[in-house]
Write a structure and sequence with these properties.
Arc Repressor Mutant, subunit A, two-stranded antiparallel sheet
Amino acid sequence: MTELSKYFKYLAILEKSNRQLDLNNTDVLILNAIAKANDARSILYVKDLLSLKEVASQATIHGRLKHLVDSKLITLKSNKADGRLKEVVLTKLAHKRYEILSKAIED
């Protein structure tokens, strides 16, 4: 299999995952930002995501976060010290998506 074929195989798996989970481009950018923070073992709050102007407007991000919660891809945890802060955490389903995508890159 050529490198280009491997890439197209990965894209097919990515597109299938996005379709199955009803993810649009904004959802993917948000999930990737959360996954990067998770991988770096840092805490990401809703306010951090709302400040990502390159992703979308605050209203759009807020709406997509609700969609991701409803899709069981993320959870929002209240901060014990400051109840206004909501920590954004990937669920097992989201971790499984990244495992599948990672394996597709390796193959």
